[in-house]
Write a structure and sequence with these properties.
The complex is a heterodimer. Helices cover 26% and strands 34% of the residues of chain A. Chain A is α+β, with helices and mostly antiparallel strands. In chain A, the strands form seven sheets. Chain A has an eight-stranded antiparallel beta sheet. In chain A, a hairpin with a 5-residue loop joins strand 10 and strand 11. In chain B, helix 4 links the parallel strand 5 and strand 6. The chains are: A alpha+beta, B alpha/beta.
Chain lengths: 598, 398
C-alpha cells in the first residue's frame, strides 16, 4: 500500500466510555468481519477482559475503507490496554501511530486516565480526533464535554465527531475524520529496517508473534533480523497483518502495522519497545523510548494445596511466555510453605494474573498482601531491596528505609476537593498542585507513597466522591520514611505471610484494625484462637475468635439428602481457600485483610 | 420374601397442617383443608399406579412412613381411604390369599410409622391406624412447656402430648417415638432438662431431639432478621447438647444417630434406611424418591399434584442423577450420622473399592483431629465428631 493511503491510529478512552464498542463498530462498518465472525473473534477475547470491561492485551486490526475521495485506505487500529498498570505499553502503542481517537463519554466528560493518555499522545505528536460518544444518552451534554476538552487539554474540538457506538451514529464520520485529519506515515523503505515492537504474544505454532510498526525499511519473509535491545537474531517465517486474525502477506512495507514471527520461543526475547532491524546491515540507532520492565508491586503466591507447587510453577512459566512483565522467584513462608514472590506492573496486573492462574490452570491460591519495594539501608552501609515484609532485617540493623513515591493525579468535581485532600493527607500525601479543568472539575496532584496507593487509596477516593474520582499515577522517586514491621500471631505463633510494613505513627492503629479485621475473617473453629499484632516482641493489639460450640446438621432424612450434600459442598468450597496455618484454618481473604481496613 | 437382599422403604407425604409452626420449612400448608379429599384420591391413585409397579419389581417394602405435615389432621374417612390403599398395595400384595395385614405388621416384618400431632389425636383414629396395620407412631411433641409451645406456634399443650401417648398405649401401640427440640427462644438449660425428664417419664420407645435451626422462609427466620427472636447463646445451646447426649443414654435410650435415641432394638428402621443408602419411594406432593442411583422429587404444589395425577401426567421430576462420586459421598456422610458409622464391607460391596483407600487422607486427618475412629469393621465418628459432624461430613466429599 502506498504510504499516503495508510493511517495508523489508536483509541484513547476511559474505562466504560465505549472504546471497545467503537472499535467493534469500525470493524463491522468496514466489513472487515461479518457480524457472525465478530461474535466468534472480536468478542471472544479473554473472559476477564470482557468481565472487567477493560483491554489487557493490545488488539490490532487492519481495516480497508473507501474514502470520500474514492480511494481505498488502509486503517490500522491499535487498541491499547486501558489501565494505569500498562502505561508503558500504552506509550509504545501510541508511538506506533500518527493519530488517535479521543473517545469521551458525552455524559461523563474527561477523566484522569484519559487525560494522562492524551498527554502521552501529545508527547508523541499524535494528531488527536475527539469523538464524543454516547450522544444517545438522555444525560448527554456534548457541548459541555467539548468545552471541557478544550479547557482541560487545550485541544481544538472543531473537528470533533458526535457518535453513538451503540446506535451506530457517527461511525462513518469517524472513518472519514481518520482519513482526513490523521497524517499518513513517513519513512524510507530503502533505509535499514527499524520496526517498533508494541506488543507480543505466544502462539503455539508460530512461536512469539511480535506486533510491529515499520518505521523505516521493509520486512520480508526469510530475512534475518535482530532485536536491538536483546540481541536476539531470527529468520522471518511469517509476516503480515491482523484482520484481526493473522494474514500472512510475506511482507510489511514502510509505514505499515502488522506482525512478524520467526520461531521465537521466549516472549522475553521480544520486548515491548524494542526495535527490530537487519541482522547484517543494522540501523545505526534503535528507535527511542525503550525501557526494561520494572515491576511496581510484589506479592506472594502460594498453592493452597502444597502438592500444587509444581503446577503453579508450570503455570507461571506458561503465563510468562505471554507476559514479559511478570517476574517471579521461589519463596518460602513458614506459614504458607513453598510459593513464589511475583512482581507485577500494578494491582490490576496482579489481580488478572492471579485470576487467570485460578481459572485457566485450576489452581487454588493464597495471595499475600501486595508490597512495594523498599530500599533498606543497613548500618553496615549496604542497601537491600525488600519486596516481602517478612524479610525486613531486624530493626537494629536498619539505618533507614526508603519507600517509593508516586505523583498521583486525581480528577473530581470541585465539591469533592476537600474529601480528596483529606484522604490524601491521611495517606501521607504531600499536596502539589490543583487546576480547574472547567468551572466544575478539578485536577489535584499529590506526592504520595505508592504503598498507600495500593492500600485502598482509590477505593476510599471513590467512596468519598460517590464514584466521581478518577486516578492516575506514575512513579516519582524514593524517599526516606519511618517504617516498621507489624507482625501477626495466630494462636501464639507468628504468621510471616501476615506481616506488613507501615509507617511508625500508624503502626498501633493499623495493628488494632488489622487484628479486628482478622477476627471478622477467621471463622470460628473448635478451639479459641487468639490473634495478636506485635512490633518486635511488643504486642500492640489482641482479639480472640471464640470457639465454635457445635456444628452439625440436626436433621437429614430422605428429602434432605441432595440439599444437604450441596450445603456441604458449599461449605467445602468456602474452605478451599483456607490454608491450615499451624492448627488454624485461615481463609485466603485474611492475607489481604490489611487492604480491607479503613 | 421377608428377607430381601435390598430392603426398600415407602414415604408418603401429607402436606396439611392445622397451622404452620414458626420454625418449620417443610412442605406443609395450613388452611388448605378443602383440597384434602382431592389430594387423598390423587395420592391413592399414585399408590395404586407407582406403588404397585414398584412392588411388582422389588417386592413389598420393609418400612412405610406416613409423614408431613400432619397425617393425623386428615378426617377419619380420608385417613381410612389412604390407609386402606397403603395396606392393599404395600402390605397385602405378597399375600393374595388375604392374610391380614395386621398380623403381618404385628409380627414386626414391616415397620409402619405414622406421624401425629398431639393436638389431633383421638381414640377412633388410633384404632383405625392399628386396624390398618400402622405399628409405630411418631409424635411431634417438641416441648412440654406450654409457653414454649405457644412461642413455637404449636397447636397443642404439654398435657395433650402426654394424653396422646397414653391413648396410643391404650390403642395397643407398643412402639412410639417422640420428637423434642432445644435451643428454643428464651430456653434455659433447666427448661430443657425438664423437657427431657418429662419425656423419659412417658417412656416412649424412641426419642428424636433436634437443635433448632433457623431455615429461610420461616417465621422464626424473619423474626431473627428483625432482632425479635431471643435465642439462647452458643454456650447455652452447647450445654443443652452436652446434657442431651448424657441424659438420654443414662435413661436407657441409646444414641444411634446424631439426633436419634432409642431403647434397645427400637431404632427407626425407616430412618436408618436413609442413612444406609437403601432405596425409597416417595409418594404425594413434595415427596422424594431414591431409586437406582437417581433421586426424584414430586411437585411441591398441591394443586399441580392433584391435577397432574388426574390427567395422568408425570408429577415426578428427576432431582439428580447420583454420580458414583456423589454416591460415595452420600454413602459416607449419611452413614457417619449413625453411631455405627460406615461399614467397611458395605462400602466395598457397593463400590468395589476399599473405604480406607478412597478416603485415606480424610480418615487420617479426622483421626488426628479426634473426630473419627476406626475399628476392624467400621469407621465412625467419636463423640466429639458427632458434635462437629459437619466438619467430618465435609471431609468425605471427594
Amino acid at each position: 500500500m502506498a504510504k499516503k493511503n495508510i493511517r495508523n491510529f489508536s483509541i484513547i478512552a476511559h474505562i466504560d466510555h465505549g472504546k471497545s464498542t467503537i472499535a467493534d463498530r469500525l470493524i463491522e462498518y468496514t466489513g472487515t468481519l461479518s457480524s457472525r465472525e465478530m461474535e466468534a473473534q472480536v468478542l471472544d477475547n479473554m473472559d476477564l477482559e470482557r468481565e472487567r470491561g477493560i483491554t489487557i492485551k493490545a488488539q490490532t486490526v487492519r481495516l480497508a475503507y473507501k474514502g470520500k475521495d474514492g480511494e481505498t485506505y488502509e486503517l490500522n487500529l491499535i487498541d491499547t490496554p486501558g489501565h494505569v498498570d500498562f502505561t508503558y505499553e500504552v506509550s509504545r502503542s501510541l508511538a506506533a501511530c500518527e493519530g488517535a481517537l479521543l473517545v469521551v463519554d458525552a455524559a461523563q466528560g474527561v477523566e484522569a486516565q484519559t487525560l494522562a493518555n492524551v498527554y502521552m499522545a501529545l508527547e508523541h505528536d499524535l494528531e488527536i480526533v475527539p469523538v464524543i460518544n454516547k450522544i444517545d444518552l438522555p444525560s448527554a451534554d456534548p457541548d459541555r464535554v467539548k468545552q471541557e476538552i478544550e479547557d482541560a487539554i487545550g485541544l481544538d474540538t472543531g473537528n470533533a465527531v458526535l457518535a453513538s457506538a451503540k446506535t451506530g451514529v457517527g461511525i462513518e464520520e469517524i472513518l472519514d475524520a481518520i482519513v482526513e485529519y490523521i497524517p499518513a506515515p513517513e519513512g524510507d523503505e530503502t533505509k535499514p529496517l527499524q520496526a517498533l515492537i508494541f506488543d507480543s504474544y505466544f502462539d503455539a505454532y508460530k512461536g512469539v508473534i511480535a506486533h510491529v510498526r515499520v518505521k523505516e525499511g521493509r520486512i520480508e519473509k526469510g530475512m534475518r533480523l535482530k532485536m536491538m535491545a536483546t540481541g536476539k537474531v531470527f529468520e522471518v517465517t511469517d509476516v503480515g497483518y491482523f484482520a484481526p486474525t493473522l494474514v500472512d502477506t510475506g511482507h510489511l512495507d514502510v509505514g505499515e502495522v502488522g506482525f512478524v514471527a520467526g520461531s521465537l520461543k521466549d516472549v522475553r526475547d521480544v520486548r515491548v519497545g524494542d526495535t527490530i532491524t537487519f541482522a547484517d546491515n543494522p540501523a545505526a540507532e534503535p528507535l527511542p523510548g525503550y525501557r526494561g520492565v520494572t515491576p511496581m508491586v510484589y506479592c506472594g503466591l502460594y498453592p493452597v494445596d502444597s502438592a500444587d507447587y509444581d503446577n503453579l510453577k508450570d503455570a507461571l512459566e506458561k503465563m510468562q511466555i505471554n507476559d514479559a512483565a511478570l517476574v517471579f522467584e521461589p519463596e518460602t513462608s513458614v506459614a504458607l510453605g513453598f510459593g513464589f514472590r511475583c512482581g507485577f506492573l500494578g494491582l490490576l496486573h496482579m489481580d488478572v494474573i492471579q485470576e487467570r492462574l485460578e481459572r485457566e490452570y485450576k489452581l487454588r491460591l493464597i495471595t499475600t498482601a501486595p508490597s512495594v519495594i523498599y530500599h533498606v539501608y543497613k548500618t553496615d552501609g549496604t542497601m537491600v531491596k525488600v519486596a516481602n515484609p517478612s524479610e525486613l532485617p531486624p530493626q537494629t540493623e536498619i539505618e533507614h528505609i526508603e519507600e517509593p513515591y508516586v505523583k498521583a493525579t486525581v480528577i473530581v468535581p470541585s465539591d469533592y476537593v476537600g474529601a480528596v485532600m483529606e484522604i490524601s493527607q491521611d495517606k501521607r500525601g504531600t499536596f502539589q498542585n490543583m487546576d480547574y479543568l472547567d468551572t466544575n472539575r478539578v485536577m489535584i496532584t499529590y506526592h504520595i507513597p505508592l504503598n498507600e496507593i495500593i492500600f485502598d487509596y482509590f477505593d476510599r477516593l471513590k467512596s468519598a466522591t460517590r464514584g466521581y474520582a478518577s486516578l492516575d499515577y506514575e512513579l516519582a522517586d524514593y524517599q526516606t520514611s519511618k517504617l516498621v514491621k507489624v507482625d501477626v500471631l495466630l494462636n501464639g505463633d507468628p504468621v510471616d505471610a501476615l506481616s506488613t510494613i507501615v509507617h511508625k505513627d500508624r503502626a498501633a492503629s493499623r495493628g488494632r484494625q488489622l487484628v479486628s479485621k482478622l477476627k471478622e475473617i477467621i471463622p470460628q473453629q473448635m478451639f479459641e484462637i487468639p490473634i495478636q499484632a506485635a512490633i518486635g516482641s511488643k504486642v500492640i493489639a489482641r482479639e480472640n475468635v471464640r470457639a465454635r460450640r457445635k456444628d452439625v446438621l440436626a436433621k437429614c432424612y430422605g428429602g434432605d439428602i441432595t440439599r444437604k450434600r450441596k450445603l456441604l459442598e458449599k461449605q467445602k468450597e468456602g474452605k478451599k481457600r483456607m490454608k491450615a496455618v499451624g492448627s488454624v484454618e485461615v481463609p485466603q481473604e485474611a492475607f489481604m485483610a490489611i487492604l480491607k481496613i479503613d | 420374601m421377608d428377607e430381601r437382599e435390598h430392603p426398600w422403604g415407602v414415604y408418603i407425604h401429607i402436606p396439611f397442617c392445622k397451622s404452620k409452626c414458626f420454625y418449620c420449612d417443610f412442605p406443609s400448608y395450613a388452611g388448605r383443608e378443602s383440597f384434602m379429599a382431592d389430594y387423598v384420591s390423587a395420592l391413592v391413585r399414585e399408590i395404586e399406579r407407582v406403588g404397585a409397579l414398584r412392588v411388582e419389581e422389588a417386592g413389598t417394602p420393609a418400612t412405610i412412613y406416613i409423614g408431613g405435615g400432619t397425617p393425623s389432621v386428615l378426617p377419619q374417612e380420608l385417613l381410612e381411604t389412604l390407609l386402606t390403599a397403603v395396606r392393599r398395595i404395600f402390605l397385602e400384595a405378597d399375600f393374595p390369599q388375604g392374610e391380614r395385614a395386621r398380623e403381618r405388621a404385628e409380627a414386626g416384618t414391616v415397620e409402619y410409622t405414622m406421624e401425629c400431632n398431639p393436638g389431633t389425636v383421638d381414640m377412633e383414629m388410633l384404632k383405625l391406624c392399628r386396624l390398618q396395620g400402622v405399628n409405630r407412631l411418631s409424635f411431634g411433641v417438641q416441648s412440654f412447656d406450654d409457653r414454649m409451645l405457644r412461642r413455637l406456634g404449636r397447636i397443642h399443650t404439654g398435657l395433650e402430648a402426654m394424653r396422646s401417648a397414653h391413648l396410643a398405649r391404650i390403642a395397643g401401640f407398643d412402639n412410639i417415638s417422640m420428637d423434642l427440640m432445644y435451643g428454643l427462644p428464651e430456653e434455659t438449660v433447666d427448661d430443657f432438662r425438664h423437657d427431657l425428664q418429662a419425656m423419659v417419664e412417658l417412656s416412649p420407645e424412641h426419642i428424636s431431639v433436634y437443635g433448632l435451626q433457623l431455615e429461610m422462609g420461616t417465621a422464626f427466620y424473619k423474626m431473627q432478621e428483625n432482632g425479635k427472636l431471643k435465642l439462647p447463646d452458643e454456650e447455652t445451646v452447647e450445654a443443652m447438647y452436652d446434657l442431651l447426649v448424657d441424659f438420654l443414654p443414662a435413661k436407657g435410650y441409646g444414641r444411634y444417630e446424631i439426633s436419634s435415641f432409642a431403647k434397645a432394638g427400637r431404632e427407626s428402621r425407616h430412618n436408618l434406611s436413609y442413612w444406609r443408602d437403601a432405596e425409597y419411594l416417595g409418594l404425594g406432593a413434595a415427596a422424594h424418591s431414591y431409586l437406582g442411583d437417581r433421586r426424584y422429587e414430586n411437585t411441591h404444589d398441591i394443586l399441580a399434584y392433584i391435577e397432574g395425577i388426574r390427567e395422568g401426567e408425570s408429577i415426578r421430576r428427576l432431582e439428580e442423577d447420583v454420580t458414583e462420586k456423589a454416591h460415595k459421598e452420600e454413602f459416607c456422610f449419611l452413614a457417619l450420622r449413625t453411631t455405627e458409622g460406615i461399614e467397611k464391607a458395605a462400602f466395598a460391596r457397593t463400590f468395589g473399592e476399599k473405604l480406607t483407600d478412597v478416603y485415606a487422607g480424610a480418615i487420617a486427618d479426622l483421626k488426628k483431629k479426634e473426630l473419627l475412629e476406626e475399628t476392624e469393621t467400621h469407621v465412625r465418628l467419636t463423640p466429639l465428631g458427632m458434635k462437629y459432624g459437619n466438619m467430618a461430613f465435609e471431609a468425605f466429599l471427594l
